[in-house]
């Protein structure tokens, strides 16, 4: 099947198998290796990208299902040589160790910052809560870090949220 999508602001028309995941399309066909294949079951978040501005596990999304969508990977967060504020904050706060989960953490955080509304830990569901460390931890709970850099990840995200 031929599909057309925009990846990091660049339009692409790609011939793909209808069973191919978005993750495999990004890595194997477009050469974008930022999104990682961790568990390949949507449980770790290493493959998180933004699809039309919303976070998604690219290992679970079929490439044909994102036809016509705008996909942003970690490679597309920066503006040329200017790092995205989250990327700069991750460096400043040492919010990574091995770095394998970092692209997914960054894309998830970028999407999370634009998501309004309460989470499971919000006291008053009628309010749009401040992004406290507890809120950030809850909203980022789909992204796992085997190295345990969570404290620094939360503080980097909190700095950008302020």
UniProtKB/TrEMBL annotation:
Top-level taxon of origin: Bacteria
Positions of the 2Fe-2S ferredoxin-type domain: 1-77
Pfam families named among the record's database cross-references: Fer2, Fer2_2
Pathway where this protein functions: Alkaloid degradation; nicotine degradation
InterPro entries: 2Fe-2S-bd, 2Fe-2S-bd_dom_sf, 2Fe-2S_ferredoxin-like_sf, 2Fe-2S_ferredoxin-type, 2Fe2S_fd_BS, Aldehyde_Oxdr_Iron-Sulfur, Beta-grasp_dom_sf
Listed GO MF terms: 2 iron, 2 sulfur cluster binding; metal ion binding; oxidoreductase activity, acting on the aldehyde or oxo group of donors
SUPFAM superfamilies, A to Z: 2Fe-2S ferredoxin-like (SSF54292), CO dehydrogenase ISP C-domain like (SSF47741)
Alphabetical UniProt keywords: 2Fe-2S, Iron, Iron-sulfur, Metal-binding, Oxidoreductase
PANTHER family recorded: OXIDOREDUCTASE WITH IRON-SULFUR SUBUNIT, OXIDOREDUCTASE, IRON-SULPHUR BINDING SUBUNIT-RELATED-RELATED
The name this protein goes by in its record: 2Fe-2S iron-sulfur cluster binding domain-containing protein
């Amino acid at each position: 099947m031929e599909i057309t999508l925009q990846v990091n602001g660049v339009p692409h028309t790609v011939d793909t198998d209808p069973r191919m995941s978005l993750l495999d399309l990004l890595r194997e066909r477009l050469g974008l290796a930022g999104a990682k294949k961790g568990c390949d079951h949507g449980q770790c978040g290493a493959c998180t990208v933004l699809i039309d501005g919303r976070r998604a596990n690219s290992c679970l999304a079929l490439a044909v299902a994102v036809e016509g969508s705008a996909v942003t990977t970690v490679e597309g967060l920066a503006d040329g040589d200017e790092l995205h504020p989250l990327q700069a904050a991750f460096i400043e706060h040492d919010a990574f160790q091995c770095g394998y989960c970092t692209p997914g953490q960054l894309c998830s955080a970028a999407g999370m910052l634009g998501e309004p509304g309460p989470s499971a830990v919000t006291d008053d569901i009628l309010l749009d809560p401040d992004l406290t460390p507890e809120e950030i931890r809850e909203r980022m709970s789909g992204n796992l870090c085997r190295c345990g850099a969570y404290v620094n990840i939360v503080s980097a995200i909190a700095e950008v949220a302020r």
